[in-house]
Amino acid sequence: MQLKRILVPLSGTSVDPDVIRVAVSLGKPAKAEVMAIYVIEVRWNLPLDAILEPESERGEGVLDDAVKVAEKAGAHLETELVQAREAAAAIIDTARDRKADLIVLGMPFRRRLGRVYVGKTVQSVYVGAHCAVLAYRQEETR
Amino acid sequence: MSNDKGNEESGEGDEPPSLEGRDAKFGRRPGDRYIRIVRPAAGEFRRRGGHYVATPRVDAPKGGLGRAYQAARRVLFGSRLTSEEEEGERLSKKTGLAILASDNISSSAYATEEAMRVLAIAGAAALALTMPIAIAVCVVLAVVILSESRVIRAYPNGGGSYLVAKDNHGVIPGLIAASALLIDYVLTVAVSTAAGVAAISSFVPAVHEHRVLWSLGLIALLTIGNLRGIREAGVIFAAPTYVYILSLLGLIAYGLFRIVTGDMPAAAVPRDAFQSQGLELLTPLIVLRAFASGSVGLTGSEAIANGVPNFKPPEPRNAVITLVWMGAIFGTLFLGLTYLATSIGIVPDHSEAETVNSMLTRSLVGEDTPFYYVVQISTAVILLLAANTGFSGFPRLASVLADDRFMPRQFAFRGERLAFSFGIIALALVSAAVLAAFEGSVTKLVPLYTIGVFLAFTLSQSGLVRRWWRLRDPGWRLSMVINTFGTVVTGTVLVVVAVTKFTIGAWIVLVVMPVLVGMLYAINRHYRSVQDALTLDRPDEPIPVLKPPVVLIPVARLDRATLQAVAFARSISPTVRAVHIASTAESAAEFARRWRRWTTEVPLDVIESPYRSLLKPLLRYIERIDERDDRPITIVLAEFVPRNWWEWILHSQTALRLKLSLLFRPNTIVIDIPYHTEDTGHGHTPRELEDPPQ
After folding, report:
1. Is B52 within 8 Å of chain A by CB?
2. Are residues B33 and A84, on separate chains, in Cβ contact within 8 Å?
3. Residue B388: which region, alpha, beta or left (left: phi > 0; alpha: psi -120 to 50)?
4. Cβ pair B99, B91 in contact under 8 A
């Protein structure tokens, strides 16, 4: 598969740097553009375009850190900050809008009673994305 | 399908400009709306606590030349520090002692000798008074330290003698104390550097010939060290200070051991010893002069009180502890060396070819032993480093004065490394000039020295006396007695130093000081008048509603730059008038004709200037228009900006000259409309608009 654009949704967890490095290494041979996205989930009792200072600050921090990780890995990283009701829908739509060929996302998971649980965002992106999705698995630390 | 809603080009329209735009998008499914936060300045500005923070990328140079310059700066001065990193740049007690007390501690290298030199005039027997004088100096030092520790507790933000004198005596005495200290800091740098070079030239005689150049080089080195930040300067200077302290303590311990065990060494003989009979009688004046000379050991003790904010928290406590350490170390070294010198019977060298400390070390450990060289080299190094006390004291005091608006505001700004760069560079330049003017001679510089510090001490101690009297805190009587004693002692030393050194150079300081006080006062008066003019009467002052201004557009040619300026002028006011200066009646008529053909909406005045002067008729025209209208006059200038810097010389820069002429004109707003060749997208120089067809 010839990759042209890779979308990397970030969540501000410890898995983010690894996900960025994986995306950069996948994109390098084909000189694919790598873009990181951070979605601020807006509660239903607030307007969608509400100015959420602390969340925006955190998002910018996560994206700036991602840029540094990408630079260290030798790649330029485009970033996007988005506000949405549901992260998954915004990720899927951004991937479609930006014509991404691949979504690389971190998949923190938890084991409970012998079963593995993953977050609903990962599940929704898996099901709804128009393009290939690669999940980077990492167990959540308690 | 997602489609854009809202404005893609954030910042346009009626919205005020912002670093952030919000772009609403519709998702694939109904209801999947989301907001794309457009951040054109991402990476350059970061949000934090409701405001933006500029990231290092903002200051990053763009061109190759800029990057090379930045890299050179990083190598020389180190990488930049953020304001939050200031705590990390503070001094611990150990580095504080090395950096702020090296001046005082290094005085032990020559204080004994200075006292002995004066006493030796009255004969070798008079040298027996050196020890009582050393004890008296140490008693004064104890009083000064006690007093300074009270200054630190009362004034933890630094400023030392200046703040104490200003608070308790008033502004002028405060400024006298500040001027005295500023002069003394300059002289500390000059004298210490010259003394250090003199110490080096004792080992390497070739240095003596170019001592001014060597001294200037050392000042440059100290400047760079200090511009790198005070903590790094402390790291650079800590080792030699501690080597000096340990080697001298070792020497004293060894000397005492030999005396106690009855192994009294023979005194080393100088090449040119003072005569044992003496040239003068031992009078009280000689004793006072010897005391005054020995009191050079008190210089530098104010640096810690001035530099309290440089310490790590709790700043006052750490500063007081460092001050006590400094006094204890100086006292031990000074008394120990004086005791050994007088017990062994060292007589100072009349020609100053060898120091008393050198002779003492030679007597105790021998001439060519490694320890002798350790003592001598560490003495030379600490004398050089004592200059650094000036570099930590001057910028800090200047910043306090700048905060109080007695010195230019630039002195209060911290540089990239959190050092007061402006003060450091100013000190380096002034002390280098003084050093060059006095040909790098310690003998010529020394008479100027110490007056300032004793004047500052006297003012601050007498200030504290008034403070205790006024506040009457618990224990005020004892404090008042201590500070009164201190005032009398330091005042006496001041008078003795000023009188005995007046004709050999002290007069220069006594002339410069009032001039400096006058300058500081004048600067403050200027700032106060500016503040009075700028300060809002009320915090909720309403924004005044202004009438549109009268706009004048000086036009040289009818070209694209003029077109842009006229368009802008009409966007801010309906009252727009163009003015053109012509050199002949024909060119005046021709320009007026072409203007009328181009537009009748903007009236034009054409002024014929038969002597071809441009600025004067234009300025007079502006004045006359301004007289007839009370609205602010606005001059809109069309300025052509060439693509490359070297193309500037090909253009007359009339707009630039006009801007400079109008800069200080009251009630005049000057708006520059730059015209870049890229603006057209054609990449060629603006040409004169063609005449419309007849």
Report:
1. no
2. yes
3. alpha
4. yes
Residues B100 and B106 sit within 8 Å (Cβ to Cβ): no
Beta bridge partners of B668: B633
Tell me if B668 sits within 8 A of B637, measured CB to CB.
no
pLDDT score recorded for residue B44: 76
Option in A49, A57, A94 nearest B24 (CB)? A49
Q: Of B456, B587, B479, whose CA–CA distance to B184 is shortest?
A: B456
pLDDT at B307: 75
pLDDT at B691: 44
* pLDDT for B1: 39
CA closest to A79 among chain B residues: B42
Tell which of A65, A69, A83, A86 to mutate to test the B interface (max B CBs under 10 Å). A83
B567 and A CB contact within 8 Å: no
Enumerate long-range contacts of B42-51, CB under 8 Å, 24 or more apart.
B42/A60, B42/A63, B42/A64, B42/A79, B42/A81, B43/A64, B43/A67, B45/B19, B46/A57, B46/A60, B46/A61, B46/A64, B47/A53, B47/A56, B47/A57, B47/A60, B48/A57, B49/A53, B49/A57, B50/A53
Q: What is the pLDDT of residues B259-272, one digit of tens each?
A: 888 888 887 777 66
What the block records as the tokens of B118 is 């004066």
Over residues B527-544, the mean pLDDT reads: 86
Give the strand pairing for B550-554 and B576-582.
Answer: parallel
Residue type, B123: G
B4 near A CB under 8 A: no
Distance CA B222, CA B232 (A): 11
